[in-house]
Write a structure and sequence with these properties.
Layout (H helix, E strand, L loop, with lengths): L4 E4 L10 H9 L2 E4 L3 E5 L2 H6 L9 E4 L2 H13 L9 E4 L2 H7 L9 E4 L4 H8 L6 E7 L5 H9 L2 E12 L12 E4 L2 H10 L9 E5 L1 H9 L6 E3 L7 H12 L3
Parallel strand pairs: 1-2, 1-9, 4-5, 4-7, 5-6, 7-8, 9-10, 10-11
Antiparallel strand pairs: 3-8
Helix pairs in contact: 1-9, 5-6, 7-8
Amino acid sequence: MKVKTILVSQPPPKTETSPYFDLSDKQKVKIDFRSFIHVEGISVKEIRNNKVDFKDFTAIILTSRNAVDYFFKIAEEMRFKVPDDMKYFCQSEAVAYYLQKYVVYRKRKIYVGSRTFLDLTKLIKKHKTENFLLPSSDKLKPLVPEELDKLGVEWTRIDLYRTVVSDLSDLENVVYDVLVFFSPSGIESLFQNFPDFKQNGTRIAAFGNSTVTAVTEAGLNCDIEAPSPETPSMTMALDKYIKVVNKK
Protein backbone atom coordinates (compact mmCIF):
# COMPACT_ATOMS: atom_id res chain seq x y z
CA MET A 1 0.00 0.00 0.00
CA LYS A 2 1.33 3.40 -0.99
CA VAL A 3 1.90 6.14 1.56
CA LYS A 4 0.08 9.40 0.87
CA THR A 5 -0.63 10.75 4.35
CA ILE A 6 1.40 10.81 7.57
CA LEU A 7 0.49 11.99 11.07
CA VAL A 8 3.43 12.89 13.32
CA SER A 9 2.50 12.82 17.00
CA GLN A 10 4.41 16.00 17.81
CA PRO A 11 3.77 19.75 17.54
CA PRO A 12 4.39 21.37 14.14
CA PRO A 13 8.04 22.34 13.54
CA LYS A 14 8.89 25.91 14.48
CA THR A 15 11.29 26.30 11.59
CA GLU A 16 10.70 26.19 7.85
CA THR A 17 13.88 24.16 7.43
CA SER A 18 12.43 21.07 9.11
CA PRO A 19 13.37 17.84 7.33
CA TYR A 20 9.69 16.88 7.44
CA PHE A 21 8.90 19.61 4.94
CA ASP A 22 11.71 18.37 2.70
CA LEU A 23 10.32 14.84 2.96
CA SER A 24 6.84 16.05 2.06
CA ASP A 25 8.09 17.85 -1.04
CA LYS A 26 10.41 15.07 -2.10
CA GLN A 27 7.98 12.17 -1.75
CA LYS A 28 4.78 14.12 -2.50
CA VAL A 29 3.11 13.05 0.74
CA LYS A 30 0.89 15.04 3.10
CA ILE A 31 2.35 15.35 6.61
CA ASP A 32 0.26 16.61 9.52
CA PHE A 33 1.42 17.25 13.09
CA ARG A 34 -0.54 16.79 16.29
CA SER A 35 0.65 16.44 19.88
CA PHE A 36 -0.68 13.22 21.38
CA ILE A 37 0.60 14.31 24.77
CA HIS A 38 1.35 17.64 26.46
CA VAL A 39 2.75 18.83 29.75
CA GLU A 40 1.02 20.66 32.58
CA GLY A 41 2.71 22.35 35.51
CA ILE A 42 2.30 21.12 39.07
CA SER A 43 0.97 23.67 41.56
CA VAL A 44 3.27 25.45 43.99
CA LYS A 45 1.12 24.15 46.86
CA GLU A 46 1.74 20.55 45.82
CA ILE A 47 5.46 21.22 45.39
CA ARG A 48 5.70 22.80 48.85
CA ASN A 49 4.14 19.63 50.28
CA ASN A 50 7.21 17.74 49.08
CA LYS A 51 9.26 19.85 51.50
CA VAL A 52 12.05 20.44 48.98
CA ASP A 53 13.86 23.73 49.60
CA PHE A 54 15.60 25.15 46.53
CA LYS A 55 18.10 26.91 48.82
CA ASP A 56 19.61 23.54 49.74
CA PHE A 57 21.03 22.94 46.26
CA THR A 58 24.22 24.12 44.59
CA ALA A 59 23.62 22.60 41.15
CA ILE A 60 20.70 21.83 38.85
CA ILE A 61 20.48 19.01 36.30
CA LEU A 62 18.43 20.02 33.26
CA THR A 63 17.44 17.29 30.82
CA SER A 64 14.96 19.21 28.67
CA ARG A 65 13.64 22.66 27.81
CA ASN A 66 10.49 21.86 29.78
CA ALA A 67 12.66 21.31 32.87
CA VAL A 68 14.23 24.73 32.30
CA ASP A 69 10.88 26.49 31.87
CA TYR A 70 9.16 24.92 34.86
CA PHE A 71 12.12 25.30 37.21
CA PHE A 72 12.31 29.06 36.66
CA LYS A 73 8.52 29.40 36.64
CA ILE A 74 8.20 27.68 40.01
CA ALA A 75 11.23 29.55 41.40
CA GLU A 76 9.53 32.83 40.53
CA GLU A 77 6.20 31.77 42.02
CA MET A 78 7.98 30.69 45.21
CA ARG A 79 9.92 33.99 45.22
CA PHE A 80 13.19 32.11 45.18
CA LYS A 81 16.05 34.10 43.67
CA VAL A 82 18.36 31.65 41.93
CA PRO A 83 21.91 32.38 43.17
CA ASP A 84 24.41 33.67 40.62
CA ASP A 85 26.84 30.89 41.59
CA MET A 86 24.31 28.11 40.87
CA LYS A 87 25.81 25.47 38.58
CA TYR A 88 23.79 24.16 35.64
CA PHE A 89 24.35 20.72 34.11
CA CYS A 90 22.56 20.57 30.75
CA GLN A 91 22.03 17.32 28.87
CA SER A 92 22.60 18.86 25.44
CA GLU A 93 23.64 22.04 23.68
CA ALA A 94 19.99 22.68 22.79
CA VAL A 95 19.04 22.71 26.50
CA ALA A 96 22.02 24.90 27.39
CA TYR A 97 21.18 27.35 24.62
CA TYR A 98 17.58 27.51 25.83
CA LEU A 99 18.82 28.30 29.34
CA GLN A 100 19.86 31.73 28.01
CA LYS A 101 16.18 32.65 28.13
CA TYR A 102 16.56 32.93 31.92
CA VAL A 103 20.23 33.55 32.75
CA VAL A 104 23.15 35.55 31.39
CA TYR A 105 25.05 32.68 29.86
CA ARG A 106 28.59 34.05 30.08
CA LYS A 107 28.22 34.85 33.77
CA ARG A 108 27.07 31.40 34.89
CA LYS A 109 28.73 28.06 35.47
CA ILE A 110 27.18 25.88 32.79
CA TYR A 111 28.29 22.35 31.91
CA VAL A 112 27.00 20.77 28.74
CA GLY A 113 26.74 17.09 27.78
CA SER A 114 27.15 15.88 24.21
CA ARG A 115 23.63 14.52 23.76
CA THR A 116 22.59 11.68 26.07
CA PHE A 117 22.26 11.58 29.85
CA LEU A 118 25.17 9.14 30.01
CA ASP A 119 27.33 11.81 28.38
CA LEU A 120 26.28 14.28 31.06
CA THR A 121 27.11 11.91 33.94
CA LYS A 122 30.79 12.18 33.03
CA LEU A 123 30.62 15.89 33.89
CA ILE A 124 28.51 15.35 37.01
CA LYS A 125 31.08 12.82 38.26
CA LYS A 126 33.73 15.56 38.30
CA HIS A 127 31.61 17.63 40.70
CA LYS A 128 30.74 15.11 43.40
CA THR A 129 30.72 17.68 46.19
CA GLU A 130 27.69 19.48 44.75
CA ASN A 131 24.13 18.93 45.97
CA PHE A 132 22.11 18.37 42.79
CA LEU A 133 18.46 19.18 42.12
CA LEU A 134 16.76 17.31 39.29
CA PRO A 135 13.59 19.07 38.06
CA SER A 136 11.61 16.55 36.04
CA SER A 137 8.27 15.30 34.83
CA ASP A 138 6.35 12.36 36.23
CA LYS A 139 7.59 10.33 33.23
CA LEU A 140 11.30 10.41 34.05
CA LYS A 141 13.30 7.70 32.29
CA PRO A 142 14.50 5.06 34.81
CA LEU A 143 18.02 5.43 33.40
CA VAL A 144 18.41 8.88 34.96
CA PRO A 145 18.00 8.00 38.67
CA GLU A 146 19.87 4.73 38.13
CA GLU A 147 22.93 6.50 36.75
CA LEU A 148 22.86 9.23 39.41
CA ASP A 149 22.74 6.59 42.15
CA LYS A 150 25.73 4.85 40.56
CA LEU A 151 27.72 8.07 40.75
CA GLY A 152 27.13 8.31 44.49
CA VAL A 153 26.34 12.03 44.39
CA GLU A 154 23.85 13.91 46.56
CA TRP A 155 20.77 14.49 44.44
CA THR A 156 17.04 15.09 44.82
CA ARG A 157 14.31 14.70 42.23
CA ILE A 158 11.33 17.03 42.18
CA ASP A 159 8.46 16.67 39.72
CA LEU A 160 7.49 20.11 38.42
CA TYR A 161 5.25 19.06 35.52
CA ARG A 162 3.19 16.11 34.32
CA THR A 163 2.77 14.42 30.96
CA VAL A 164 -0.93 14.49 30.08
CA VAL A 165 -2.88 12.76 27.31
CA SER A 166 -4.21 15.25 24.74
CA ASP A 167 -7.80 15.24 23.51
CA LEU A 168 -7.79 13.81 19.97
CA SER A 169 -11.52 13.32 19.57
CA ASP A 170 -11.59 15.43 16.40
CA LEU A 171 -9.41 12.80 14.69
CA GLU A 172 -11.90 10.00 15.31
CA ASN A 173 -12.94 9.66 11.67
CA VAL A 174 -9.61 10.67 10.12
CA VAL A 175 -7.39 7.93 8.67
CA TYR A 176 -3.67 8.23 7.96
CA ASP A 177 -1.40 5.82 6.10
CA VAL A 178 1.35 6.23 8.72
CA LEU A 179 1.25 7.20 12.41
CA VAL A 180 4.59 8.33 13.87
CA PHE A 181 5.36 7.93 17.59
CA PHE A 182 8.30 9.04 19.72
CA SER A 183 7.43 7.74 23.18
CA PRO A 184 5.38 5.07 24.95
CA SER A 185 3.15 7.91 26.17
CA GLY A 186 2.08 8.52 22.58
CA ILE A 187 0.85 4.93 22.30
CA GLU A 188 -0.94 5.31 25.64
CA SER A 189 -2.66 8.43 24.31
CA LEU A 190 -3.73 6.63 21.14
CA PHE A 191 -5.62 3.97 23.08
CA GLN A 192 -7.00 6.33 25.71
CA ASN A 193 -8.51 8.42 22.93
CA PHE A 194 -9.51 5.47 20.74
CA PRO A 195 -9.91 2.32 22.88
CA ASP A 196 -11.18 0.34 19.89
CA PHE A 197 -8.33 1.35 17.57
CA LYS A 198 -7.54 -1.29 14.94
CA GLN A 199 -4.40 -0.97 12.89
CA ASN A 200 -5.79 -2.46 9.69
CA GLY A 201 -3.74 -0.90 6.87
CA THR A 202 -2.19 1.86 8.96
CA ARG A 203 1.56 1.67 9.25
CA ILE A 204 3.21 2.49 12.59
CA ALA A 205 6.56 4.26 12.83
CA ALA A 206 8.36 4.32 16.20
CA PHE A 207 11.47 6.13 17.39
CA GLY A 208 13.52 4.49 20.13
CA ASN A 209 13.55 1.02 21.67
CA SER A 210 11.05 1.86 24.40
CA THR A 211 8.57 3.18 21.84
CA VAL A 212 8.97 0.11 19.63
CA THR A 213 8.36 -2.08 22.68
CA ALA A 214 5.22 -0.11 23.57
CA VAL A 215 3.92 -0.56 20.02
CA THR A 216 4.36 -4.33 20.06
CA GLU A 217 3.03 -4.70 23.62
CA ALA A 218 -0.11 -2.89 22.48
CA GLY A 219 -0.62 -5.61 19.88
CA LEU A 220 0.37 -3.44 16.93
CA ASN A 221 2.86 -4.05 14.16
CA CYS A 222 5.83 -1.70 14.04
CA ASP A 223 6.54 -1.18 10.34
CA ILE A 224 9.15 1.56 10.55
CA GLU A 225 11.82 1.75 13.25
CA ALA A 226 14.39 4.43 13.99
CA PRO A 227 17.11 5.18 14.77
CA SER A 228 19.39 2.69 13.04
CA PRO A 229 22.92 2.99 11.60
CA GLU A 230 21.40 3.40 8.15
CA THR A 231 18.55 5.73 9.18
CA PRO A 232 19.55 7.71 12.30
CA SER A 233 16.52 10.02 12.07
CA MET A 234 12.79 9.40 11.74
CA THR A 235 12.57 11.38 8.50
CA MET A 236 15.30 9.22 6.96
CA ALA A 237 13.50 6.04 8.05
CA LEU A 238 10.22 7.32 6.58
CA ASP A 239 11.96 8.32 3.36
CA LYS A 240 13.49 4.88 2.95
CA TYR A 241 10.16 3.13 3.60
CA ILE A 242 8.18 5.38 1.24
CA LYS A 243 10.69 4.88 -1.56
CA VAL A 244 10.04 1.15 -1.42
CA VAL A 245 6.26 1.02 -0.99
CA ASN A 246 5.39 3.88 -3.37
CA LYS A 247 7.28 2.22 -6.22
CA LYS A 248 4.97 -0.74 -6.21
